[in-house]
Write a structure and sequence with these properties.
Elements (H helix, E strand, L loop, with lengths): L11 H16 L3 H5 L11 H28 L6 H15 L5 H13 L8 H17 L10 H8 L4 H11 L5 E5 L5 H4 L5 E5 L2 E4 L16 E3 L2 H8 L9 E5 L5 H8 L3 E6 L2 H14 L4 E4 L11 E6 L24 H16 L2 E11 L8 H10 L3 E4 L12 E4 L3 E4 L13 E8 L5
Parallel strand pairs: 5-6, 5-8, 6-7, 8-9
Antiparallel strand pairs: 1-3, 1-4, 2-3, 9-13, 10-13, 11-12, 12-13
Helix pairs in contact: 1-3, 1-4, 3-4, 4-5, 4-6, 5-6, 10-11
Amino acid sequence: MKKKLNKITYDKILASAYFIVLNVFKKNLSTRQSMGSKAIKFSSLSSSDKAKCNDLVQKVLRFTVYLDPWINRNKKGRLRIEIFCLVRLALVDILVRNVRQETVLKKYSELASSFERTKHSKDQLRYFIHLGYSVSKKKSLEPLFLFESKIRKVLSSQYSLEIIERVEKIFSDSSPIDLSIKSSASEKNYFKQLQGTSVNRSHFRLSQKTSLIKTKGYWAGDWWVQSLAASLPVKIAPMDLKEKIVLDVCCAPGGKSFQLADNGAILTSIDKSERRLKLMKENLDRLNYDLDLICADVFEYQPKKLFDIILLDPPCTATGTIGKNPDLQFLNPLDKLEELSDVQQKMLTRCASWLQDDGYIIYSVCSLLKQEGEDQISRFLKKNKDFCLIHPQKKGYLDQEGYETNKESGIRIMPFFEEGLGGTEGFFIAYLHLKGKSN
């Protein structure tokens, strides 16, 4: 009779977090891709365990650039990538999440024992755990977000060191959950019951992580999730939207389409991702908005009519969302910059041909890079003399740091906009007017 082996048990939340982080650095996979993988078993976790796992992953990726030099200074010999990732996770549990030492030693030792590539390196892991608690007591290692070196170099050519450090400070904290509120919803009736802050008349920021489907107004379709920065291209638009014939290009996940519909636009929304459109359709049904939703590539789409307004939010490096998606900066976004810039310019040119005389393009990207914002618009205007820039009037909540207007290229929203409330994402917006024949 074969001897029955003792089955090693380990923390399933930690195991999923470990493989998600490992996939970022070893396989160049995004956290979203890993979470959708059957091998990771993230989908088998309960909703609350998924939230705990995601929180740990996000914190590790947020503080990796800060922690890695410390790990390298203190390592004794070579650290294979699998152990390096476990050390990152352990340090976040120690320094950020304040988990008890006995718990960390137990669960990380169990996890390391379970895999061939880590089971012989448990002593290295325990060494870093003990060292982590030592610096924790002295408070000599207090993690903060730092940009990866290549991205920081590019940003340093475009912004001052003071601005970069202000952005890093904002990105050090977990991203808030913002709700965009339907105009027909009465904020006074129930938003005061939620824990959070009204950012302005049509936006609400939750003060803690919560179950969104259990949040007041979800099933009534009174709001949708949308960051403050992402809402601004429509919110501050300097043209009337009601009953205008509008096209939203690259519309998924749908926040700007919902805003346009809420403002009374006669709307067509297109996106080439069936998966993202399916999620958008679910929200559309909940919100009860009526619009024409089409799965189409912008370079293949042939409109049957011209539009008064076209909102274009093209693919970009998404560097303005790194605070919310810290894995992005480890997935080589700069390698895609030239290709993305070319796509953005081609999309702008194509959309320009679909406008009515005296029409408008609203261009927006969630990028901190001027190549995708200011430079892109300057380039377009040089080639298209029949277009000019217009700007919204600066008033109310716009009149603060982080909202910057360049009369020659557009509007830059920095992550420290609304810094007192926790900031937002980085964004660029431009309003392009096709001058009518009467002009």
